[in-house]
Amino acid sequence: MSCNEHAGFATRQIHAGHQDLSAVGPLATPIFQTSTFVFQDTAQGAARFAGEEQGYIYTRLGNPNGNEVGAKVANLEGAEMGLVMGSGMGAVSACMWSLLKAGDHLLADKTLYGCTFAYFMHGLTRFGVEVTLIDFADLDAIKASLRDNTAVVYFESETNPDLKIVDIPAIVKIVKDHNPATKIVVDNTFATPVLLRPIELGVDIVLHSATKYLNGHGDVIAGMLCGSAEDMTNVLMVGVKDMTGSVIGPFEAFLINRGLKTLDIRVNKHCQSAMKIATFLEGHPAVKRTLYPGLASHPQHALAEKLFHGGFGGMIAFELDCSKDRAAEFINHLELCSLAVSLGDAETLIEHPASMTHSTYTPEELAEAGIGEGMIRLSVGLEDPEDIIADLKAQLDKIKK
Ligand code: LCS
């Protein structure tokens, strides 16, 4: 039931982190629906609190279901330790509260998931953290923006919603040459460890909204962090335990573990379908612009080819050649694509970033971040791509009439 470190990705996504329950022998790890754990005696309780003995104490500090997910995703990302949390935002905030203090500087990409943007600009700044947002496609700007007090550099490996690919090896070199102690935190939600593994490229901490591809079934909210045992223990004991309490329930962790067993199969299918759908969109006269890293027309296509393994993800952004009202009509009349935020599910989801996921940005900030009013985001699901293309085509054809 266990696997060694040389096993392939698919073997590790099924077996890594599996606990020894040989006395009972279940194939699937049962749900440990318990808030607390019984100590044999006071000496054992004290030893566990002192960190002198390994073992469970209380589910906010760890639970077998959560620990299995943490160990598994850490294994897939090539990290020493992983933590699963109550949401992606719980992971972002638990990480930042652990790494930053008043007077520190955070340097981040200007294109971020809307709530990450709001937390940085309107949350952290209230507590004396200086925040600078710049375009992480501009390596000179990164070099020029690093300061003596830059404690954290933060970006999404593939940005939400405009699918920019960030040059991780180049940024690692610039940041670590400036100050090896500066932590580089990368949100790898869109790419997943199937396609991209930032820790192998020198990043310190990888973050996920596990709500998305890691779970993959649209029924759980969860977050993940992976990194060194030292960094993860710091996040657990400060950011999770004391500052956010962002804890996942055992049942949700069980579901994420179940989803993870098919991660590579699902991601590969998302990639194949997204390539077909992006190619279709790019060729349709009603579509003004299609952004998909697998298309030769994508601004960082060559970089995506260099960094990504075996595919370019399941997310597409596009703009229509029509008015705002006509674009809304297009979305409202789709039959198979569901109008919903989130992504990475079996169902294809479509949304309007400027008024939905990125409505935390002002119109000026949206323009600065390159998130156009006309941008539409598609999370390609696991349906037959021909059916999604037919659904899109039926409405796109009406625009040109
Ligand atoms: N990071 C990224 C890149 C995300 O896309 C999201 C959520 C989060 C972090 C936060 O994760 P959560 O707390 O929701 O688990 N993104 C969403 C989106 O694009 N649509 O709905 C949620």
General form: globular
Count all strands and give the number: 12
- Series of secondary-structure elements, N-terminal to C-terminal: HHHEHEHEHEHEHEEHHHEHEHEEHEH
Strand order of the largest sheet: 1-7-6-5-4-2-3
Secondary structural class: alpha/beta
Q: Which band does the percent of strand residues land in?
A: 5-15%
What is the gyration radius calculated from CA atoms?
A: 22 Å
**Biggest sheet architecture:** 7 strands, mixed
Uncertain ranges: none
| Overall mean confidence score, pLDDT | 96
Helix share, percent:
25-40%
Spatial separation of the terminal alpha carbons: 59 Å
> Number of helix segments?
15
- Catalogue the ligands: ligand LCS
Question: How would you sum up this structure in a few lines?
Answer:
The chain has 401 residues and is of the alpha/beta class.
What attributes characterize this protein structure?
12 strands, 401 residues, 15 helices, binds ligand LCS, 14% strand, alpha/beta, globular, seven-stranded mixed sheet
Structural overview:
By secondary structure, the protein is an alpha/beta fold. The chain has helices at 9-15, 42-49, 64-77, 88-99, 114-123, 139-145, 168-178, 192-195, 229-244, 250-260, 263-283, 301-307, 324-332, 363-369, 385-400; strands spanning 81-85, 105-109, 130-134, 150-156, 183-187, 205-209, 223-227, 287-291, 315-320, 338-339, 349-351, 375-379. It has a seven-stranded mixed β-sheet with strand order 1-7-6-5-4-2-3, with helices on both faces. A five-stranded mixed β-sheet has the order 8-9-12-11-10, covered by helices on one side. Strand 2 (105-109), helix 5 (114-123) and strand 3 form a beta-alpha-beta unit. Helix 3 (64-77) packs parallel to helix 10. It starts with 8 loop residues before the first helix and ends with a helix. Ligand LCS binds at residues 87-89, 113, 115-116, 156, 160, 187, 189, 209, 211, 221, 223, 341-343, 357.
